[in-house]
Write a structure and sequence with these properties.
The complex is a heterodimer of chains A (246) and B (578). Chain A has 246 residues and is an alpha+beta fold. Chain A has eight helices and seven strands. In chain A, strands 2-1-5-3-4 form a five-stranded mixed β-sheet, with helices on one face. In chain A, a hairpin with a 2-residue loop joins strand 6 and strand 7. In chain B, the strands form five sheets. In chain B, strands 1, 2, 6, 7, 8, 9, 16 and 17 form an eight-stranded mixed β-sheet that branches. A four-stranded antiparallel β-sheet of chain B has the order 11-14-13-12. By secondary structure, chain B is of the alpha/beta class. Classes of the chains: A alpha+beta (246), B alpha/beta (578).
Chain lengths: 246, 578
């Protein structure tokens, strides 16, 4: 098997970046700046942004942490599409690579936005297990069948990166809309057989800023770096609210 | 002038340990969580494989067997009283997480499913046992999400994106912290009766690491600069399956589900190193085996510098349902299809066994005699209880954060409700303010990024899987030179709002201090034990070295080492064979 292994080290390449910059202490409006860095073939976009920050302009501001698509810090608009900078390889991107902050949330500096409205939407759907107070807790674990566990598996994958919510045209135009990520997190509990807060959440999501605002543009599903079927989850929540079918 | 806040309890760090502590303390006293990241960005979320507890849902098991494995896996350096606490409380901890809503995978009869993991065995080493409770290969993600959900439910107060810079001490007791608000560049004094550090590890000192960019030893760094000791810093775990070139972790669960390590000849080389449990030997042994396979010319690839994790014989359904994330990592980052070909892997810096010394109630120790610092607590990877000894077993980190996060939260709440706020000076933030201002002065000649890159190379080459007195001596002199360069490097960006250049610069300073503590402790330990392997002292020396190191640094920069005997218990040291 060793001999068949493909060659992993290829040659370096030059990468051109166009980054939307905004420094609130200096600029009145955002503007693009161009950079050229040398990249390894397997470099992620995040590696190239680091090269700009570390060796060219230390003031470039972005959030990042785990660098492998798990922590959800570095969602940005990359060549017009929402993605995590640590999960796209530069060799797969058309150059110059344009990099902008995610849309629909106030920009604070460069690629950093104010996440508070996003988390407010998340908290609004009561994203925690709600249990019946009268029910006596079992001594051991609650039982859940593999089928029941499977029912909400997809929406447990959410890392709250906001790539879905900030790709949604409804969210851009209506900041009251709770947005796809909040509905995904409601779905995770509504379809969990151990939860008894489904009706509460469906009531919240039936209101005017809830799930019915969705116009099934599918941007969110395309944007999700975790491969969650976001639009489908929203449809399931809508259907449950409509037929009260829990 | 710095902002001022008063709390009963302040927790620094919002990963699993911090959030678990917050749930406990928050229900009893006025509590705040201060974290340099949004809580859900914490690295607990990257933990994959599972959390061990002797539930015996799938196979016969007992917490004593778990304790034995933990002690033996830690090469007999763990304190056995602490290990007993952890392994006993593991069972209730897992059940508690389930009740909070954690979506564990289930058995056919609906109970929490369990699977095999490295070093976990039935009846003291007879055979691998199914002990790891898991949620696909996203167990850490689920723990982090579940604890954050519960914190929101219970209204825990968060200060997100606040970076801890100083610990306030009043006559040997802890009285609060100073933190830097990243969004504004302003300083905040958190005056508190109890402070708990849960700031995570410092694996970013190595070039190849599974650790996040933000894991820079801030908590232990602040402690070390206060002249307080750090324990067992020479013990750093290298995980055997990091993606080649990147270090991104592929969970041990891959081997738990049947994955096999192979060298260039296609040989299952672990059969030679651990004949009984083979690929499921503890991480230090497997990483060393890989190191020697590569060193002796049996590495794979054009540079013969990696080995392969072979999953091709596994049922594709098992891979897709139980290991979905890690197979995606291989596809995304190396363009390798694990269903069809071996995945190139190398040892990757993963976990600090050492850290801020504590007892089983997470109380921080002032010195090797076991005296505590009143009002100061630590839990999780930044702490050293010690339950992991010289080498942590897989899954025991998630267990550690939940068990000792909870115990720390309880202890800090108890302390806060029975003691008074200690008076602190009005200008408590002044030393921090002056130090911060000095980072911009001058305009030195180089980028801190160059210093960081060199640090990571030096630590990888000279102080990682295999060490000698010579290599550690080289590292020590390189580190001295890097400290000098660091003191001359300057931050160029003077902005206040999200000045991430100054954050990274400060983080590098903490990393340099952690590297110093590691190298000095490692040089002094002239034996091999667990994650600390000395090619010039290949044997474990129980007569001399059954003890924990405590390193501290005085104001003039001199380091001192002291030692504390290991707390023994039921298990006498035996040769570590698997």
């Amino acid at each position: 098997m060793g001999q068949e292994q493909q060659e992993l080290s290829l040659t370096k390449m030059e990468v051109k970046l166009r980054i939307l910059r905004f420094n609130p202490e200096r600029d009145t409006e955002a503007h693009f700046e161009d950079y050229t860095v040398e990249a390894e073939p397997m470099d992620r976009l995040l590696d190239c942004l680091h090269k700009v920050k570390w060796y060219d302009d230390g003031s470039l501001a972005l959030r990042r942490s785990c660098a492998h698509g798990i922590c959800g810090s570095d969602a940005m608009v990359i060549n017009g599409k929402n993605a995590l900078a640590c999960k796209v390889l530069v060799q797969d991107l058309k150059q110059p690579i344009t990099v902008e902050p995610i849309r629909g949330l106030p920009v604070i500096k460069d690629l950093i936005v104010d996440m508070e409205p996003f988390f407010a939407g998340y908290r609004a759907v009561k994203p925690w297990l709600i249990t019946d107070d009268h029910e006596r807790e079992p001594e051991r674990e609650r039982l859940q069948s593999q089928l029941d566990r499977e029912r909400y598996d997809d929406t447990t994958k959410c890392i709250l990166c906001a790539a879905c919510t900030t790709s949604c045209p409804i969210f851009w135009s209506d900041e009251e809309y709770v947005g796809p990520a909040a509905i995904v997190n409601a779905h995770r509990f509504i379809f969990d057989s151990r939860d008894s807060g489904g009706r509460e959440r469906l009531e919240i999501l039936s209101q005017k800023d809830g799930a019915y605002k969705c116009r099934t543009a599918f941007n969110c599903t395309d944007a999700c770096p975790r491969g969650i079927k976001v639009t489908q989850a929203i449809q399931e929540v809508k259907r449950a609210a409509l037929f009260n079918s829990l | 002038m710095a902002h001022h806040h008063t709390y009963d309890a302040v927790i620094v760090g919002a990963g699993g340990a911090g959030l678990r502590a917050a749930l406990e303390a928050g229900s009893k006293v006025k509590t705040a969580v201060v974290s340099k990241l949004y809580p859900t960005r914490s690295h607990t979320g990257a933990a994959q494989g599972g959390m061990c507890a002797a539930l015996a849902n799938v196979e016969e098991d007992s917490w004593e067997w778990h304790a034995f494995d933990t002690v033996k896996g830690g090469d007999f350096l763990a304190d056995q009283d602490a290990v007993d606490v952890m392994c006993k409380e593991a069972v209730t901890s897992v059940l508690e997480l389930e009740k909070m809503g954690l979506p564990f995978n289930r058995t056919e009869d609906g109970r929490i499913d369990q699977r095999r993991f490295g070093g976990h065995t039935r009846n003291h080493g007879e055979a691998p046992v199914k002990r790891a409770c898991y949620a696909a290969d996203r167990t850490g993600h689920m723990i982090l999400q579940t604890l954050y959900q519960q914190c929101n439910k219970h209204g825990v107060e968060f200060y997100d994106e606040f970076f801890v810079l100083d610990l306030l001490m009043v006559e040997g007791s802890c009285a609060g912290i100073v933190a830097y608000e990243i969004a504004t560049g302003e300083l905040h004094v958190f005056h508190a009766k109890s402070v708990l550090f849960a700031t995570g590890g410092y694996g970013k000192m190595f070039k190849i690491t599974s650790n996040a960019h933000t894991l820079t030893g801030d908590g232990p760094g602040v402690v070390y600069r206060k002249g307080l000791p750090l324990e067992d810093m020479e013990f750093f775990q290298f995980h055997p399956t990091g993606l080649y070139g990147l270090g991104i972790l592929l969970s041990e669960a891959a081997r738990g589900e049947g994955g096999i390590l192979r060298n260039a000849d296609g040989e299952r080389f672990m059969e030679r190193y651990a004949p009984t449990i083979k690929d499921l030997a503890p991480r230090d042994m497997v990483s060393r085996a890989e190191f020697f396979e590569i060193k002796e010319g049996r590495g794979v690839g054009p540079k013969k510098d990696y080995v392969l994790l072979d999953l091709t014989h596994l049922d594709p359904h098992v891979i897709e349902t139980k290991l979905p994330d890690i197979t995606e990592f291989a596809r995304t980052y190396l363009n390798v299809e694990p269903l069809k070909e071996g995945v190139p892997i190398v040892p990757t810096a993963h976990y600090a066994m050492g850290g801020i010394p504590t007892n089983v109630d997470a109380e921080v120790l002032r010195d090797h005699t076991g005296q505590t610092v009143p009002g100061f607590y630590a839990a999780g990877e930044c702490a050293c209880v010690s339950v992991h000894g010289a080498n942590r077993l897989g899954t025991n980190s998630l267990l550690d954060i939940v068990v000792f996060g909870r115990r720390g939260g309880l202890a800090m709440a108890e302390h806060a409700s029975t003691s008074k706020l200690l008076p602190i000076p009005e200008d408590a933030a002044k030393p921090t303010e002056e130090w911060l201002a000095s980072l911009y002065d001058g305009g030195g000649p180089e980028f801190s990024a160059n210093i960081r890159a060199r640090l990571q190379e030096v630590m990888m080459d000279k102080a990682s899987v295999v060490r000698t007195d010579e290599s550690l001596g080289d590292a020590q002199s390189e580190l001295e030179a890097l400290q000098k360069r660091y003191s001359q490097a300057r931050v160029r960006d003077r902005s206040k709002i999200f000045n991430t250049e100054v954050i990274e610069h400060i983080e590098l300073g903490f990393l340099l201090d952690m590297a110093e503590a590691l190298v000095v402790s490692a040089r002094a330990r002239t034996e091999s034990r667990g994650g600390h392997y000395r090619e010039d002292h290949q044997l474990r020396e129980d007569d001399h070295w059954l003890k924990h190191s405590f390193i501290s640094r005085s104001g003039d920069g001199e380091t001192t080492l002291a030692y504390k005997d290991v707390t023994m218990g039921r298990y006498e040291p035996v040769e570590r064979k698997y």
